[in-house]
Write a structure and sequence with these properties.
- This protein has about 190 residues and is mainly beta.
- It is about 10% helix and about 45% strand.
- The chain contains one helix and nine strands; from the N terminus they run H-E-E-E-E-E-E-E-E-E.
- It has an eight-stranded antiparallel β-barrel.
- Strand 7 and strand 8 form a beta hairpin.
- The relative contact order is 0.16.
- The mean pLDDT is about 90.
Length: about 190
């Protein structure tokens, strides 16, 4: 009977010690994650927004907005420029003309990621500087196969009014010449 009581007391003692060790100390919690109410973060019912703008990518001329940052050893032998890393700071406007109203900038990188076709991995932020979205941004990460008439890429997040954003962007090439490309974007995004 004494042995049984001793075992029960030892079990209680070690369970208490294990519980305190798991929490760091009595009364202090060091949890990795927890569930919280969306309202506590100021989140409201989600909205679906449609944004329409034109992306101006100038690779040459007096003021390029895209530059080559790196190339692979085989890039010069590749018809698709495979392995080239471009860095961009491209204007976003309301109309196809570069002189139309500026609403933001596309800032980030794109990489020629295919040996068979002109296809890029796009990792960029649409940083808006106009109207109610001034100071807010959307993040895009995806494959852009430029030979397709319409390319769809995911919107994976955002900031400001686009916090917790998710959605997709459709890109259509509007015009191309030896110095620049103009791309029409339709972006559909859920956000708070």
């Amino acid at each position: 009977m004494v042995v049984k009581l001793l075992l029960i007391l030892l079990t209680i003692f070690f369970s208490t010690i294990a519980g305190v060790a798991a929490s760091g100390s009595a009364g202090e919690s060091h949890r990795f994650s927890r569930n919280i109410s969306p309202k506590s973060m100021g989140l409201k019912r989600e909205k679906l927004s449609h944004l329409h703008f034109y992306f101006h990518d100038a690779i040459a001329g007096p003021k390029p907005t895209t530059v080559i940052a790196a190339q692979a050893a085989i890039t010069n032998k590749s018809a698709t420029l495979f392995g080239t890393v471009f860095v961009m700071d491209d204007p976003l406007t309301v109309r196809p003309k570069p002189s139309s109203k500026l609403v933001g900038r596309a800032q980030g990188i794109y990489v020629s990621a295919s040996q068979e076709e002109e296809s890029f991995l796009m990792a960029l932020t649409f940083a808006f500087m106009e109207g109610k979205y001034n100071g807010s941004s959307l993040s895009l990460l995806g494959r852009n196969a430029i030979s397709l008439a319409v390319r769809e890429m995911p919107i994976v997040g955002g900031s400001g009014l686009f916090r917790f954003a998710r959605g997709y962007a459709q890109a259509r090439t509007h015009t191309v010449n030896h110095q620049s490309t103009v791309v029409e974007y339709n972006v559909y995004v859920f956000h708070n």
